[in-house]
């Protein structure tokens, strides 16, 4: 596999009374035994949750769970004592490790929440559970790849227990970027808004791509585009 | 503590939530025995009988990604959920006897109706 593109409507639509989700990998009622992971990536759910609604308390373990808020706000509560609202321009990371019970809700009583929820296998099992929510430099993603989650972390980059980086970028129409993929690495792409050429292949809103053994990832905005790029093992 | 009215064993895939065993929907014989495990914490050994071969083998595929629960319903108290962490198990399936055994290393109890961190 060099590069595989998946159109937005190729993903199954999971519809509840108060939420919709388009999973990229097997999740919930969608199970495909040949689509359960991409490297250490296990889940990429494109979620919309109605105002005031959400998921009650439930457990997680041995997973790094990242929620990127696209619009609206999410409230996270857990048995570690965290009660945090994460809004647009912010990202949260939960290390489930040996076990955490958490609940997550749309924090608004009036506006829907749009988010990407991403799950990654950690570099080791049995980690101490932890949680953080950080604000990234939203202006800093203009025409460049802005890291928002990485193994090292910083004040504006959430840290994660895996050798990987999640970038966000907003490219103006006509602008180009080049990402160099290291040996043995993978790249997962998700177009949040707009239209983008990736190594010559057109990707539109909510399309995804998975790339292996592609030394160069050439990105060109055919129209203004907001996208996520994940560099992972 | 009120008397337990009903107990349910649930074994699910932790990634995506696929249900493997739900004794409320498919009654099946099981035992849950408290044992001392990781770091002196209370673990639990589960033994489940009459597990179909295909299901037993599928659970083994995902043995590092299991969510094991005991849901306890009470007469006059809200449901309490016990979630068990299965680190290294062991998780074993004895095909000859259709018996699944799972060793969980620790647990967390929570009451969904009273979840106020």
Could you please describe the fold and organization of this structure?
Chain A is mainly β. Chain A folds into 2 domains: 13-25 and 36-135, Jelly Rolls (Sandwich); 143-233, Sandwich (Jelly Rolls), CATH 2.60.120. Chain A has no helices and 20 strands. In chain A, the strands form 3 sheets. In chain A, strands 1, 13, 14, 15, 16, 17, 18, 19 and 20 form a 9-stranded mixed β-sheet that branches. In chain A, β2 and β3 (19-23) form a beta hairpin. Chain B has 117 residues and is mainly β. Chain B has one domain (4-114). Chain B is 8% helix and 50% strand. Chain B contains 1 helix and 9 strands. In chain B, the strands form 2 sheets. Chain B has a 5-stranded antiparallel β-sheet, with no helix packed on it. In chain B, strands 3-4-8-7 form a 4-stranded antiparallel β-sheet, with helices on one face. The mean pLDDT of chain B is 93. The A-B interface holds A 25-28, 30-31, 36, 42-43, 56-57, 59-63, 77-83, 98-99, 101, 103, 119, 125-126 and B 14-18, 64-65, 67, 83, 85, 87, 106, 108, 110, 112, 115-117.
Any key phrases for this structure?
heterodimer, A: 233 residues, mainly beta, Jelly Rolls, 2 domains, nine-stranded mixed sheet, seven-stranded antiparallel sheet, 0% helix, globular, B: 117 residues, five-stranded antiparallel sheet, four-stranded antiparallel sheet, 8% helix, 50% strand
């Amino acid at each position: 596999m060099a590069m595989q593109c998946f159109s937005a409507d190729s993903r199954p639509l999971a519809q509840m009374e108060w939420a919709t989700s388009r999973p990229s990998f097997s999740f919930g009622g969608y199970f495909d035994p040949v689509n359960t992971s991409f490297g250490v990536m296990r889940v990429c759910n494109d979620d919309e949750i109605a105002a005031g609604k959400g998921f009650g308390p439930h457990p997680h373990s041995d997973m790094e769970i990242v929620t990127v808020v696209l619009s609206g706000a999410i409230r996270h509560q857990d048995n570690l004592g965290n009660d945090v609202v994460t809004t647009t321009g912010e990202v949260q990371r939960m290390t489930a490790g040996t076990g955490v019970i958490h609940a997550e809700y749309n924090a608004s009583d009036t506006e829907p929440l749009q988010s990407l929820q991403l799950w990654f296998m950690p570099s080791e099992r049995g980690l101490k559970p932890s949680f953080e929510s950080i604000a990234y430099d939203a202006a800093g993603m203009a025409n460049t790849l802005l890291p928002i989650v990485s193994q090292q972390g910083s004040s504006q980059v959430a840290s994660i227990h895996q050798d990987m980086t999640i970038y966000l970028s907003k490219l103006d129409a006509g602008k180009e970027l080049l990402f160099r993929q290291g040996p043995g690495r993978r790249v997962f792409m998700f177009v949040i808004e707009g239209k983008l050429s990736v190594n010559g292949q057109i990707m539109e809103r909510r399309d995804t791509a998975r790339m292996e053994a592609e030394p160069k990832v050439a990105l060109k905005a055919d129209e203004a585009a907001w996208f996520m790029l994940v560099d992972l093992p | 503590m009120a008397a337990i009215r009903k107990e349910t064993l649930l074994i699910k895939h932790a990634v995506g939530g696929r249900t493997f065993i739900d004794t409320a929907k498919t009654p099946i014989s099981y035992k849950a025995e408290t044992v001392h495990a990781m770091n002196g914490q209370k673990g639990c050994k589960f033994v489940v009988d009459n597990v179909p071969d295909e299901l037993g083998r599928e659970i083994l595929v995902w043995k590092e990604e299991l969510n094991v629960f005991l849901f306890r319903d009470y007469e006059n108290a809200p449901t309490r959920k016990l979630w068990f962490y299965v680190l290294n198990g062991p998780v074993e399936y004895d095909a000859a006897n259709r018996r699944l055994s799972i060793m969980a290393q620790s647990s967390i109890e929570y009451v969904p109706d009273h979840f106020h961190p």
